[in-house]
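Researcher: Please translate sequence to C-alpha coordinates.
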Amino acid sequence: MTATIDSIIISEREPSPPSRLSFTPAGSPPGLLDGAWWPRSRDLFRELPALTKVLDTRWDRITHVTVNPTCWPVVPRKVPVNGHTVHVGWFAEEQDPNKAILLSYTAGRWDLLVIPPETDPAAAARLMSAAATPGGLLTASALMASEHTTRDAQETLWREEDWETDGGAVSANGGRA
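Model: Translation complete:
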Protein backbone atom coordinates (compact mmCIF):
# COMPACT_ATOMS: atom_id res chain seq x y z
CA MET A 1 0.00 0.00 0.00
CA THR A 2 1.33 3.44 -0.95
CA ALA A 3 0.66 6.51 1.14
CA THR A 4 0.35 9.90 -0.53
CA ILE A 5 1.16 12.97 1.48
CA ASP A 6 -0.56 16.14 0.40
CA SER A 7 2.05 18.85 -0.25
CA ILE A 8 -0.24 21.45 1.31
CA ILE A 9 -0.11 19.64 4.64
CA ILE A 10 3.69 19.50 4.47
CA SER A 11 4.04 23.19 3.66
CA GLU A 12 1.62 23.99 6.47
CA ARG A 13 3.86 22.24 8.99
CA GLU A 14 7.08 23.87 7.86
CA PRO A 15 7.80 26.84 10.11
CA SER A 16 7.42 30.13 8.33
CA PRO A 17 10.17 32.68 8.83
CA PRO A 18 9.15 35.83 10.72
CA SER A 19 7.25 38.43 8.72
CA ARG A 20 8.94 41.64 7.61
CA LEU A 21 6.50 44.39 8.55
CA SER A 22 6.28 48.10 9.29
CA PHE A 23 3.30 49.96 10.74
CA THR A 24 2.19 53.52 11.20
CA PRO A 25 2.59 54.53 14.85
CA ALA A 26 -0.42 53.90 17.07
CA GLY A 27 -2.63 56.96 17.41
CA SER A 28 -1.21 58.67 14.32
CA PRO A 29 -3.45 60.42 11.78
CA PRO A 30 -5.03 58.01 9.31
CA GLY A 31 -3.59 57.69 5.83
CA LEU A 32 -4.22 55.50 2.82
CA LEU A 33 -1.92 52.78 4.16
CA ASP A 34 -1.40 51.36 7.63
CA GLY A 35 2.05 49.99 6.90
CA ALA A 36 3.89 47.53 4.69
CA TRP A 37 4.49 43.80 4.38
CA TRP A 38 7.51 42.34 2.56
CA PRO A 39 6.76 38.63 2.08
CA ARG A 40 9.58 36.21 1.29
CA SER A 41 7.68 34.51 -1.57
CA ARG A 42 4.53 34.73 -3.66
CA ASP A 43 3.04 31.71 -1.87
CA LEU A 44 0.10 33.06 0.15
CA PHE A 45 -0.55 29.71 1.80
CA ARG A 46 2.96 29.82 3.27
CA GLU A 47 3.21 33.58 3.91
CA LEU A 48 -0.16 34.35 5.56
CA PRO A 49 0.40 32.31 8.74
CA ALA A 50 3.53 34.28 9.64
CA LEU A 51 1.79 37.58 8.84
CA THR A 52 -1.37 36.88 10.80
CA LYS A 53 0.58 35.44 13.74
CA VAL A 54 2.10 38.88 14.27
CA LEU A 55 -1.13 40.75 13.55
CA ASP A 56 -3.36 38.56 15.73
CA THR A 57 -1.41 39.72 18.79
CA ARG A 58 -1.28 43.34 17.63
CA TRP A 59 -4.77 43.87 16.19
CA ASP A 60 -6.76 40.88 17.43
CA ARG A 61 -7.72 37.91 15.30
CA ILE A 62 -7.41 38.48 11.55
CA THR A 63 -10.39 36.77 9.91
CA HIS A 64 -10.19 37.85 6.25
CA VAL A 65 -7.49 38.94 3.82
CA THR A 66 -8.04 40.23 0.30
CA VAL A 67 -5.41 40.57 -2.41
CA ASN A 68 -5.24 41.28 -6.11
CA PRO A 69 -4.39 38.02 -7.94
CA THR A 70 -2.08 39.86 -10.35
CA CYS A 71 0.85 39.40 -7.95
CA TRP A 72 -0.11 36.02 -6.49
CA PRO A 73 -0.02 32.91 -8.71
CA VAL A 74 -2.38 31.00 -6.39
CA VAL A 75 -4.93 32.54 -4.05
CA PRO A 76 -6.15 29.92 -1.56
CA ARG A 77 -9.72 30.32 -0.29
CA LYS A 78 -8.81 29.48 3.32
CA VAL A 79 -5.56 29.33 5.27
CA PRO A 80 -5.26 27.67 8.68
CA VAL A 81 -3.56 30.03 11.14
CA ASN A 82 -2.94 29.71 14.88
CA GLY A 83 -5.96 27.53 15.56
CA HIS A 84 -8.39 29.42 13.33
CA THR A 85 -9.03 29.90 9.64
CA VAL A 86 -8.32 33.05 7.66
CA HIS A 87 -10.59 33.46 4.65
CA VAL A 88 -8.81 34.81 1.57
CA GLY A 89 -10.55 36.73 -1.18
CA TRP A 90 -9.40 38.50 -4.28
CA PHE A 91 -10.44 41.46 -6.37
CA ALA A 92 -8.77 41.73 -9.77
CA GLU A 93 -9.92 45.20 -10.81
CA GLU A 94 -11.19 46.78 -7.62
CA GLN A 95 -8.08 46.33 -5.46
CA ASP A 96 -4.65 47.83 -5.93
CA PRO A 97 -2.29 45.00 -6.99
CA ASN A 98 0.31 46.20 -4.47
CA LYS A 99 -2.00 46.14 -1.46
CA ALA A 100 -3.37 43.56 0.96
CA ILE A 101 -6.47 44.34 3.00
CA LEU A 102 -6.72 42.63 6.39
CA LEU A 103 -9.95 42.44 8.36
CA SER A 104 -10.73 41.63 11.98
CA TYR A 105 -14.28 41.32 13.28
CA THR A 106 -13.38 43.10 16.48
CA ALA A 107 -10.70 45.60 15.50
CA GLY A 108 -11.42 46.77 11.94
CA ARG A 109 -9.50 47.01 8.68
CA TRP A 110 -5.87 47.61 7.73
CA ASP A 111 -4.39 48.27 4.32
CA LEU A 112 -0.79 47.18 3.81
CA LEU A 113 1.56 47.87 0.94
CA VAL A 114 2.81 44.50 -0.35
CA ILE A 115 6.44 44.79 -1.39
CA PRO A 116 7.38 42.17 -4.00
CA PRO A 117 9.60 39.44 -2.51
CA GLU A 118 12.36 40.01 -5.07
CA THR A 119 12.74 43.69 -4.13
CA ASP A 120 16.24 44.88 -3.26
CA PRO A 121 16.61 45.27 0.55
CA ALA A 122 17.47 49.00 0.31
CA ALA A 123 14.40 49.67 -1.83
CA ALA A 124 12.24 47.56 0.50
CA ALA A 125 13.47 49.57 3.49
CA ARG A 126 12.53 52.84 1.75
CA LEU A 127 9.10 51.47 0.83
CA MET A 128 8.45 50.14 4.34
CA SER A 129 9.33 53.52 5.80
CA ALA A 130 7.18 55.41 3.29
CA ALA A 131 4.16 53.14 3.86
CA ALA A 132 4.41 53.69 7.63
CA THR A 133 4.36 57.48 7.33
CA PRO A 134 1.46 58.84 9.43
CA GLY A 135 -1.25 60.44 7.31
CA GLY A 136 0.36 59.21 4.06
CA LEU A 137 -1.61 60.15 0.97
CA LEU A 138 0.04 57.85 -1.58
CA THR A 139 -1.60 54.64 -2.68
CA ALA A 140 0.35 51.38 -2.71
CA SER A 141 0.88 51.58 -6.48
CA ALA A 142 1.93 55.24 -6.24
CA LEU A 143 4.58 54.29 -3.67
CA MET A 144 5.83 51.50 -5.92
CA ALA A 145 5.95 53.86 -8.93
CA SER A 146 7.82 56.44 -6.86
CA GLU A 147 10.38 53.80 -5.86
CA HIS A 148 10.82 52.75 -9.51
CA THR A 149 11.41 56.39 -10.45
CA THR A 150 13.94 56.79 -7.65
CA ARG A 151 15.71 53.58 -8.69
CA ASP A 152 15.80 54.60 -12.36
CA ALA A 153 17.19 58.04 -11.48
CA GLN A 154 19.85 56.46 -9.26
CA GLU A 155 20.87 54.02 -12.00
CA THR A 156 21.16 56.90 -14.49
CA LEU A 157 23.33 58.82 -12.05
CA TRP A 158 25.57 55.79 -11.52
CA ARG A 159 25.94 55.32 -15.32
CA GLU A 160 26.88 58.99 -15.70
CA GLU A 161 29.40 58.74 -12.87
CA ASP A 162 30.91 55.61 -14.44
CA TRP A 163 31.07 57.39 -17.80
CA GLU A 164 32.78 60.43 -16.28
CA THR A 165 35.23 58.25 -14.34
CA ASP A 166 36.13 56.36 -17.48
CA GLY A 167 37.20 59.58 -19.18
CA GLY A 168 34.00 60.95 -20.62
CA ALA A 169 33.20 61.29 -24.29
CA VAL A 170 35.76 61.08 -27.07
CA SER A 171 35.51 63.77 -29.76
CA ALA A 172 35.55 63.02 -33.48
CA ASN A 173 39.26 63.95 -33.75
CA GLY A 174 40.24 61.41 -31.08
CA GLY A 175 40.67 63.85 -28.22
CA ARG A 176 38.57 64.15 -25.12
CA ALA A 177 35.48 66.34 -25.41
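Researcher: Any highlights?
Model: The helical segments are 7-13, 44-59, 121-131, 140-165.
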